[in-house]
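Researcher: Hi, I'm a grad student and pretty new to this. My advisor asked me to get structures for two proteins we've been looking at. I'm not sure of the right format, so I'll just paste the first sequence and hope you can take it from there.
Model: That works fine. Here's the first sequence with its structure tokens right after it:
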Amino acid sequence: GTVHRGIYELSVQSTKQYDDCRKKIQTFINAPSEKNIIFTRGTTESINLAAFGFVKDMINEGDEILITEIEHHANFVPWQQIAKEKKATVVYAPVTDLGELDVKAFETLVSNKTKFIAITHISNVLGSIFPIQKIIKLAKSKQIPILIDGAQAIAHENVNVKALDPDFYCFSGHKMYGPTGIGVCYASDRVIELIRPMTFGGDMIETVKKEGSTFTDAPLKFEAGTPPIVEAIGLGKSIEYIQSIGIETLKKIDQDLTKKTITEFKKHSWIKLIGEPENRSSNISFEIEGIHPHDIGSILDNENIAIRVGHHCAQPTMERFKVPATARVSFGAYNTDNDIDQLMRGLKNAKEIFG
């Protein structure tokens, strides 16, 4: 049954479950209100909504948008497009050889030309956990709106937007044990009434006349058309799952497995870690000399080990660390020490196959 449109029982039930999910997300990230929770197709669409529905209108020729040099393409390309159109500049804050944000360099790049800041919470390639609380505080002291790409953090960190107080916090359902095709753009009270809708049609209107149309209030104003009903309800269930385990328990699983994996990797000189941040999550990128990451992935796949290989939608990160691609392992609630043991057997097998 579709939502917000019918008075028959199936529609009423669907609407309740769909709307309940928004409330679950609000509680999960401690947002001020349900109206701050905008449903999207994923982190990419969330960032694009912020970029083209809000940031584009405030950027003028000569202005600067500050990001880092290791952002996911989703938090890289939209700002380039806006800068190109508005004759503005995207400024790239550097990271150290360990993969950590150079905070001092970041601070020096903030100027009166800086009109927006967009930064990842956790690097999808290196696992670096950036000091976003410090960066948000810096942005607010300069009255610069800020967006956090929280895709990699949402299932691994305690995300409290009321305490962090960003203007935007974006994440995806499939990064938190939920379905694909559903995401969230948290928009603060400071910005939500200033965002322009990017899509138009049913469910986001207040009135439609030949002379013109008016729009309903946030968040429905940004959710034109039949929404992703099944995906949203699935996301609500994934939040229940995370809460049943506890985010601190999940974080401990993540940290314990990450430490063990890095310890195992360092026992073998033929495994090279890409980035070694001190404060990190479980995204671990590595390479083996003489073996292309795609070949590593294929051999491991034959042993039922699924890893990510390639540039991870982060080609500038590859350029920064002077590698064409990496192999990357990461962990979730379902992983155990046995998985790491199997991973190491698989990597040793790859090395033997390639001599």
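Researcher: Oh nice, that was easy. Here's the second one.
Model: And its structure:
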Amino acid sequence: WKQPFGGRELAWNFTLLQGALGYRHAEGVYWTLPVECVYYLVCTALLLTRSLFDARRVAILAAVLLVVYAVLVPTFARPGARLDYDGAQWFLNLSIMLWGTLYRAHVDARAELRKLDGIANVLFWTLLAGYVVALPLLAWKTSTAYMQNSLWTYVVGFAIFLVGTRLVRIETRVTDWLGRVSYSIYLFHVIVFTSLQWWLLRMPAGSIWRTQPFWAYVAGGLAIVLGVATLTYYLVEKPGMRLGHRLAARWEARAAPAPDIARAA
């Protein structure tokens, strides 16, 4: 916004590697996208090592990542720290995403992950306690308000997630639709509102476009966001998911053991 942004910086932003290479983010809200890409790589590694559907291995990896994060937290304030706060958050984020895989196996009988039992079940509940109990303690021990606020947002997010999936189930056509397009809402809400702000600032100060109540701009912006999100869901997301399912089906077909023709006969 009113800052020079070179072509090289923009090009690296399309790779999602700009942060790792020292370039500025074109859109700060997209910081989660590189984390998601790394999570997909982790899942690929788990798949290739026959661990993706093994609850025990997934739980152990999630626990290791959380322990690494907990060890790194006290080092943030020290001079010459190997990782800053944002870098260390990758371990926490990846741990939580893996725990989400375990959570689905816990609540959804259709999940492909094996049933949680033994050490997987112990780690599942231990990790949950770590996220909702240990994180506030870490926040209390940290020295900066930024770190404290960030850690508390994780706890609040977990509380909303657990209440919304276990206690207060909201199932309507509207909320189901909002859930389907929520990822596109996340991707485009800043773009829409920033574009609206840019356009409004170019209008005359006393024009009808600049003199409406605040709620009118919020409502109008939300309507545009929902329209854009719906279009991108049906034109980009849904076809992409269909393609992913087809590729996964081909992978499963190749990985399936060949039928024993002689035994079948």
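Researcher: Is there anything I should tell my advisor about the second?
Model: You could mention this: The chain has a mean pLDDT of 85.
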